[in-house]
Design brief:
With 299 residues, this protein is of the alpha+beta class. The chain contains 9 helices and 13 strands. It starts with a strand and ends in a 13-residue tail after the last strand.
Length: 299
């Protein structure tokens, strides 16, 4: 097999509500997600035994020799459930920040599963979707990599129509601090304040504003651990052409939604010096478009 490259997109949680804490430690959630044109790239080729090499700007943060690495566990998962019988060399170009609330690791796992599903997806896709949550709660959503509402512990997926004419711009800012999901949930104080959204499609900017009102239940907990999150959100709040903003996942990455990619780019140019002085990581781009669908091998 020749070396193949697949794209592994980042996600943001436009909303994240914690509905219930389960006895097994998991939480029931409700979360609107969209995927971005920010990618890790995964190069895959046959090898006599599994081997992982990591390159890219975040390569030093991941231990490629760790047997608990999610990519190596995913290859074992694919062999266990007969998606492949082979071993592989995986080269991961890591462009998405680690432990950042952007679903990078889950997306990497989902991209590999999707790659092996492409030849026999019709008969196995439902089974694999259900089983994939064993690897991580975000992986079923990442298998779709489309605008969606995730419920349950993340495995119940409802696709959302996202208006193609909304050429929105997205800005991501991360304080260059890793924040583990486990730590945030351990410190999270559950409150019964579920706010149901009736939005099943995103047609205009008002829909995005309504979702931002729902917000992220983990935000206050993340701010207590990483106070920089609040400072970043204030920057978005005080920017006139930022139509909505929030924190993604368990943080600490924050996002701002703008009416165009050029507006998002202008925002970055305006605040670039401030971000660099504070050693913040930042990015601007847009929502994952149809032109990239083939490269992520969608279901």
């Amino acid at each position: 097999m020749k070396k193949t490259v697949i794209l592994s997109p980042a996600k943001i949680n436009l909303t994240l509500q914690i509905k219930e804490r389960l006895k097994n430690g998991y939480h029931l959630i409700s979360s609107h997600m969209v995927f971005l044109d920010l990618f890790d790239r995964i190069f895959i080729e046959n090898e006599t035994s599994d081997f992982l090499k990591i390159i890219g700007p975040f390569k030093k943060i991941i231990n490629s020799n760790d047997k608990d690495n999610l990519i190596l566990k995913t290859l074992k998962f694919c062999r266990k459930y007969k998606l492949t019988n082979d071993s592989f060399k995986i080269t991961l170009e890591k462009n998405i920040p680690i432990s950042a609330g952007l679903g990078g690791g889950s997306s990497n796992s989902a991209s590999i599963i999707r790659y092996f599903l492409k030849n026999n997806k019709n008969e196995k896709v439902s089974k694999i979707l259900n089983l994939s949550q064993k690897l991580g709660a975000d992986i079923p959503a990442c298998l779709y990599s489309q605008p969606l509402l995730a419920e349950g512990i993340g495995e119940k997926i409802s696709l959302i129509n996202f208006c193609k004419n909304l050429d929105i711009g997205v800005v991501l800012i991360n304080p260059n601090i890793q924040l583990s999901t486990r730590k945030v949930f351990t410190n999270f104080k559950f409150k019964e304040n579920f706010r149901e959204s009736l939005i099943t499609q995103i047609d205009n900017f008002n829909d995005l504003k309504e979702l931002s009102i729902i917000g992220n239940d983990l935000k206050d907990t993340a701010i207590r651990i990483v106070p920089e999150v609040e400072k970043i959100l204030k920057i978005f709040e005080n920017t006139n052409n930022c139509i909505s903003y929030g924190m993604s996942g368990s943080g600490p990455t924050c996002f701002g939604i703008f009416k165009s990619k050029s507006s998002a780019s202008d925002f970055i140019k305006k605040f670039k010096n401030i971000f660099e002085i504070n050693n913040f990581w930042f990015w601007s781009g847009g929502i994952l478009g149809e032109s990239k669908r083939e490269l992520i091998l969608p279901l």
